[in-house]
Amino acid sequence: MVNRSSLLSLLVASTAITNAAVAQDAAVQLNEISVEAARPATVNAAGAGLGGANVSGGDGNSAATSGGGGGPSGVSGYVARVSPTATKTNTPLIETPQSVSVVTREQLNDRNVQDLNQALSYVPGVSANVFGFDPRNDAFYVRGFAEYYDGVYRDGLRQPGVGLIIPRTEPYGYEALTILRGPASGLYGLGSPGGIVDITSKRPVFVPFGEVWFQGGNFDRYQGNFDVGGPVEGSNGTMAYRLTGIVRQSDTFLPGAVDDRQMIAPSFTWRPDSDTSFTLLSEYLHTNLPGTAFFYNEPGFKVTRLYGGDAGFNKTSQQQYRIGYAFEHKFSPDLIFRQNFRYQDAAVSFPFTAFTGVTGLTAQRYAGLYKDKIKSAVVDTQLEGHFWTGPVAHTVIGGVDYAHYDYDRRYGLNFNVPDLNLAGVTDFSNFRYRTFIARPPLTSGSGQSQDQIGVYLQEQAKWDRFVLTLTGRHDWVFQSTSSFTNLVPGTPRDQNDGAFTGRVGLNYLLTPAFVPYASYATTFTPQVGVDSNGRPFKPATGDQIEAGVKVAIPNTNITGSFAGFDIVQTSILRQDPTNIANQVATGSVESKGFEAEMTASFAPGTNLTLAYTHLDVRFLRQTSLVTGQPIDGNSLSGIPGNTFTAFATYLFPPGSILSGLQVGGGVRFAGTSYADDENTVRNPTVTLFDAVLAYDFAALDPKYKGFRAQINAQNIFDRDYTNCQAGFCYRGAPATVIGSLIYRW
């Protein structure tokens, strides 16, 4: 581990600023950013001609609480200066000892984001296209680690997924999302060492507003969005509501496959005074999607255009709802109590067909039907305090959180599916077929329940120019798993795990614009099941060393960051190479690299975000599932080693001949990666271009205030690309164009 030791020395050195540098600017103090829970008094009116501005004002005023779960604040355009995700307190991002990015509502609007993967596509450290175009789930990696099962949070609370049931999120319902990179177990408990993505829901504001979108696009896409809210009449300014929803009917480039959705999300806030806030958050979401997004792979990592989905047995339906609340009470400015709660229920019916091979002009297939359900309840109770000891200012937060889920699966397989006749087919991209396929009986299945209890404590001590962050947490996880075959139940298996995780971080406020930092953090993830000897798997554990610098240029809305990191995770759950019917927790993985990001809001409607990532993810110890030979030192497949993204918008100023016109575009570059874990074949580099063109009609006549037309295009040059991971190849999305007519009031 010579390289890791060298990196640790570099990280520590990055915070050891010389005394001479301190003396040059000893009187400079970083500007504090405070966020009050008082009722919003100034919110920009919607439709004010500020490009894709957030209808909530874009300044965090829709946050129901001022700390953990309340979402980012200090927002201007694409720039946010505060997010509670990294610390569960209102700590400026420049003072947090880990790498954090925020995607604001204005950026989501400008890019007309349609799913979580798209929302993350311009964020450093994120690999969002590993599995190509697959509308069924939001599947992505952060710093080389999968995040979609236990790395997605909603309003500060984990949104667990198991098997084929991963709760979906609708981007039109986001206020913003925050990406915390690196281990977060010290505050959030079990999870991936790559980090977490925390989605903040749209919440009521105390100013009347409204918005409607009418959209149409290629692949017969039609969608309507609405978002209305404001104070409750007669409540004397103590109550507010919000109602957000969408309806979509759409085909996709997958032959015969749909992407339909309906969502409605009511919310309500009661603020009897400036010290107390209660917000009710709820949502119902229904989606119809294809059962498969895969194309037949020929030997040699060649993905064809023969689509695996049969229109007669290819319609996945997922329904989910959630209800919860965010409560905060200030006993005093220095003692704050919060509690966030959510109950969620999700169910999916998942029919699919898949190829087993192609012989001559005949394709052999089988079919399956899975029905997965998950019910979860999560609550986080926090107490935050502020006090001084001599010259040291302390921010302390302690809490207890509890999470429970029940998961149920029923499934059956049908190996008597008729072969597919390919004779006479000349254009597989438009080859649609429909076969009567009997629904297999659901004779097999499994069930699982999990309870997690965590107790955490964090101290943030600020002395002169130093900010020291110490986080510690202990978790207890209890799991029970059972299965049945041919309707005969098996014996339940119980598994209990516990672990202490933590973080230590140090920021040095060299100037108001330049803050170096370094941190060390640990993580753990319980792993369900037993090995061939009946022993429970050890939890996967990991740790990270990170250091970097954060920049926030005074008197501007320009921020930037640079971070270097080294993550090691051990006890990876894999198929047992000596007994393929079982799994084994073995080996380890190392992810190291660096990230750079800049975000700027130069003027209303004029923004820029840049991101570069260099990532090297390798097996330290592992055995190939294909050859049975060691693959120590091999790169994990499908994860690009280098990525670069840039997105910018420009709104022509009032008085110019093109006043009201907004133009923008983006580029997404993904470098090469290996197509298989044996590192025999490489994926090619891919560069994709996106664009936006919008016009505010108020520039023609003030009576048209609030009307906006917008066109968004992704992969505008229709690049045909694929990506292979673990030996299987996936096809990317072609050019996609969506036109929108928007009215805000």
Query: In oligomeric terms, what are we looking at?
Result: single chain
CATH topology: Maltoporin, Chain A
What is the rounded distance between the termini? 59 Å
- Structural class given helices, strands, pairing? mainly beta
Determine the mean pLDDT.
Answer: 89
What summary fits the major beta sheet?
Answer: 22 strands, antiparallel, barrel
CATH class: Mainly Beta
Domain TonB-dependent receptor plug: 93-196
Membrane topology: Multi-pass membrane protein
GO molecular function: siderophore uptake transmembrane transporter activity; signaling receptor activity
Domain TonB-dependent receptor-like beta-barrel: 271-716
Task: Explain what the structure shows.
Its main location: membrane. It is found in: Cell outer membrane. One of its GO terms (cellular component) is cell outer membrane. This is Ferrichrome-iron receptor. The protein is mainly beta and 745 residues long. It has one domain (2-744): TonB-dependent receptor, beta-barrel domain (Maltoporin, Chain A). The chain contains five helices and 40 strands. The strands form seven sheets. It has a 22-stranded antiparallel β-barrel. A five-stranded mixed sheet has the order 3-9-10-7-8. The N and C termini lie far apart (59 Å).
